[in-house]
Amino acid sequence: MEYENKIFLGDCGDILKGLPDNSIDLIFTSPPYADQRQKTYGGVSPDKYVDWFLPKTEQFLRVLKPSGTFILNIKERVVNGERHTYVIELILEMKKQGWLWTEEFMWHKKNSYPGKWPNRFRDNWERLIQFNKSKKFHMYQDAVMVPVGDWAKDRLSKLSETDLSRDESKVGSGFGKNVSNWVGRDKVYPTNVIHMATECTNKNHSAVFPVDLPKWFIKLFTQPGDAVLDPFVGSGTTALAALQLGRKYVGIDVNPEYVVISRERVAETQISLFSIAEEREEYQSTKDSEPTYKGTQ
Ligand SMILES: C[S@@+](CC[C@H](N)C(=O)[O-])C[C@H]1O[C@@H](n2cnc3c(N)ncnc32)[C@H](O)[C@@H]1O
After folding, report:
1. Ligand 1 center–CA 32 separation, angstroms
2. Every domain range in the chain assigned CATH 3.40.50.150
3. 258 in ligand 1 pocket by Cβ < 6 Å?
4. Are 1 and 23 in contact (CB under 8 A)?
5. What is the distance between the alpha carbons of residues 266 and 263, in angstroms, rounded to a whole number?
6. pTM surpassing 0.90?
7. pLDDT tens per residue across span 170-220
8. 232 CA distance to ligand 1 centroid (A)?
9. Distance from C-alpha of 19 to C-alpha of 59, rounded to nearest angstrom
10. CATH architecture for the domain at 6-145+190-287
């Protein structure tokens, strides 16, 4: 398709009008935060944020496949000493637009440095809000399994009688577990809290997220060959992640400088992926042409 594997310059609400309905498998993005970083890429007043965003999410809804997912990385800022409600208002308005608010992940920023404020602690996490068009969306949970961890060695080596059957919650929460199900497994499913360091290397953009963040969601919600859109692509991190995982990308940014940076980063990744593929092919053909020794020694 002619819109795939491209970084576009312009307002995402306008550019997306050129994309067909139901064409994208995953939208992963971090929009400009309300009123922040006005000097670098223009801020939107917190009070006007929802009105600014809704025409864009209308396009996101149209281009997303019914089996697709939209992950919105956002955090409400503090205005006059209290958290502004624009994220909550946005969720409510998006539900009216037809979105399902399916889940919320938390990105715990592992490497935040300490700070002191008179009435709060350092903000060490961000929201990743999951929206869907339908309850039957694609999710590949096995792709993000994590090592079971050292606790399992001790805990699973001596199972009690309760461990061998489903143990219902003693506090009546309705949650039960069968510990013996985990015997012999070296991988388990993660939680909805993602522990990841922030991006510290300068990509000539003030709000770059680490490439592993979009990668985690791309693995969870798409398969190779699927299309990933970042409508506020900035320095191109989501496009890189998609490319490295063999997915197609569509990136949009309103700032020409960021479009240049994104395109350059994508081109560099394409070149290095190409040379790795070439090296692999060369290695394989050398191996294939090696004589195989049969018979006596
Ligand atoms: C938080 S940054 C994204 C950073 C990106 N995740 C990265 O890793 O580099 C938000 C981006 O949205 C862009 N932007 C702002 N308004 C836009 C609009 N209406 N359409 C498209 N992009 C826009 C800004 O130029 C900025 O690069």
Report:
1. 6
2. 6-145+190-287
3. yes
4. yes
5. 5
6. no
7. 666 666 677 777 777 789 899 999 999 887 776 666 678 899 999 999 999
8. 4
9. 9
10. 3-Layer(aba) Sandwich (3.40)
